[in-house]
Design a protein that fits this description.
The protein contains 15 helices and twelve strands. The chain is α+β, with helices and mostly antiparallel strands. A five-stranded mixed β-sheet has the order 5-6-1-7-8. It is globular and about 60 Å long. It starts with 12 loop residues before the first strand and ends in a 20-residue tail after the last helix.
């Protein structure tokens, strides 16, 4: 589209979204996959993490159960998730973004907002900067991205979703309402299934319908926060800044079992494996956590969480696992059939070598040094090259000291 370039008094915000990111990385690493339906995600009980555009033609989409995806496209190629590789590519992509502007707000591994207002004088218009970014990502990583350009984050994100794959869409300030108002109400941030249902009951089906509804009516129907927010967004008003200092709010790891599990030893061993994975990621970012949370999902899909917060942060696998183990045992789920377990590290803070966390009790001497040695070995020889003995087949958290 050939919308006019935005006026100088307006900000220029880009929303860059990688196209079918996980699947695109797999295709780049294995060119034989190109042109074939590729699904990232495996296991009888797993879900689709990503699907390339060839797979999407068969109705496959993210979060769909793997079993359903296989029924839709039994000839598709199903691959395991390779988080380490996707994180590596993401880091390179984010470095490209930050070379253009210091104002980069990552939303996930594959998307980010970039405020390029200050970069326009040096690098050109918003469209020209977007073209530079796309060319550099393709040249260095061999994958494509789509870019939405607007004067605020909300419109930029909507624009990127409507030019995929491998496109650019710029919405000038004087074209915002023309672009926004015909869209369905579910296009607005915060409109999930329940809110969408409420809006449909009110006869509000497009963004224009919301914009033309009195603000107080929306507040009475949806509550003060949701009603006011929807009204502002329906008029294309979003005053949030791009926040470059945004850091990970949490680091988590979860696993869905191939079959429902009752054996406590197996479940605890899985908690340990997930703890090892999550804490290694956290320490690689030179961070520690104040809050440890666990998630347990039962065979009937009921899900519960438990957490413990400390006055001082912790980062060691041993310490975090002892907390997770205690939280799980306290649930007293001796005969419960469990479908999924997860560990989440929250309240993240910079640094992994803070003061001793006295609330945890006395630690084994030298455990921090041992953890550091394990991290170094893993960095050199690969994740999992050095593992706790209780993760070796046949060992359990109870019989290993």
């Amino acid at each position: 589209m050939n919308e006019p370039e935005m006026h100088e008094e307006f900000s220029t915000i880009l929303h860059v979204d990688m196209d079918a990111f996980f699947a695109s990385v797999e295709e780049h690493d294995n060119p034989a996959l190109k042109g074939k339906p590729v699904v990232v995600g495996m296991g009888v009980r797993g879900v689709v993490s990503a699907a390339n555009y060839e797979a999407r033609k068969f109705g496959i989409h993210s979060a769909m159960p793997i079993g359903q995806a296989r029924r839709l496209a039994p000839h598709a190629i199903f691959l395991p998730v390779n988080h380490e590789r996707y994180s590596e590519v993401s880091q390179h992509v984010m470095e490209i973004f930050r070379s253009v502007s210091p104002y980069v707000e990552p939303l996930s591994l594959d998307e980010a907002f970039i405020d390029v207002t200050g970069a326009r004088r040096l690098l050109g218009t918003g469209r020209e900067i977007a073209q530079q970014i796309r060319a550099r990502v393709l040249d260095s990583q061999g994958i494509t991205c789509s870019v939405g350009i607007a004067s605020n984050k909300f419109i930029a994100k909507l624009a990127s979703a409507r030019c995929k794959p491998n496109g650019i869409l710029e919405i000038a300030p004087n074209r915002i309402l023309e672009f926004l108002h015909p869209l369905p109400v579910k296009a607005i941030w915060g409109v999930g299934p329940k809110t969408n249902e409420e809006l449909q009951k009110l006869g509000l089906r497009t963004v224009a319908d919301i914009a033309n509804t009195p603000r107080n009516t929306l507040i009475r129907a949806l509550g003060e926060v949701s009603g006011a927010s929807l009204y502002e967004l329906a008029w294309g008003r979003d005053y949030r800044d791009v926040e470059p200092e945004e850091i990970d709010k949490s680091i988590s790891a979860a696993e869905t079992f191939e079959r429902d599990i009752e054996d406590q030893a197996i479940i605890l061993r899985e908690f340990l494996r997930l703890t090892e994975k999550a804490t290694a990621r956290m320490r690689s970012k030179d961070m520690s956590a104040r809050t440890i949370s666990i998630k347990v999902r039962f065979a009937d899909f009921k899900t519960i969480t438990r957490s413990k917060t400390f006055s001082l942060p912790i980062s060691g696998t041993k310490e975090v696992f002892e907390v997770a183990k205690t939280l799980f045992i306290a649930l007293k789920l001796d005969r419960a059939r469990i479908r999924l377990v997860g560990v989440s590290l929250e309240g993240l803070m910079d640094g992994v070598d803070g003061p001793e966390q006295l609330e945890l009790g006395e630690r084994d001497k030298g455990w921090r040094e041992a953890t550091a040695a394990i991290d170094k070995a893993s960095a050199r020889f690969g994740q999992g090259s050095v593992r706790p003995a209780r993760l070796i087949d046949g060992a359990t958290p109870e019989n290993e000291g």
